[in-house]
Amino acid sequence: MIHEVDEAIRRILRGGALPDGLGEVAFEAPTREWAARRNAPTLNTYLYDIREEVARRERGAFAERDENGVVVRRRQPPRWFRLSYLVTAWTTRPLDEHRLLAGALACLLPHEILPAAALTDALTALRAPLPVSIAVPPAESRSIADIWSALGGELKPSLDLVIMVPFPVSPTYPVAPPVTEGAVAVVRGLHGEPADSQPRMLRTTPGAAPGASSGAVSGAGDKADG
Question: Which spans does this entry mark as compositional bias, Low complexity (predicted)?
């Protein structure tokens, strides 16, 4: 699912910050070696952190239904994760890098969720809004300076892009087939014995409202008139 989010980010940036196919969108770690090989204006979106959004964890099981609304299986609810990207611009001049970053901020800032036009088929199939935040201060446990130190490069202006996405949990649980026959009730007396010589049977129609019945009553204890 991570690579699907990568593709959605690429579509957004290429459609807004890099129009007309000018420049590239890269996902490699922006190390010194990578920077030395760069020969075109580039927006780098480096995935530097993956963490579960524990506050959104759910319990229980979800029901999956077919086109007729019948439950066919149950599965565990998805687990939500925060994907954090370090967005940087790379050109031969700082002023051009600032323009690229401004373009990236301008095309990402209006979106609180990933736009439908940028979603891949796999992300669309999730049928869930995917929250987006841009340039929000990171948690105290994550320092941008520490990230650059780990990459072995010099500190550059950057945007912190965070996207939340659900990851489906694999195990599924089969369910019993739907009920196709009505319920059967036995009518008895106050002390448990049959009300007549034999118990009466009341059959209800499947899918009927609670308390409704088909009116069919059977019982060998019915007495004939006369």
Answer: 206-226
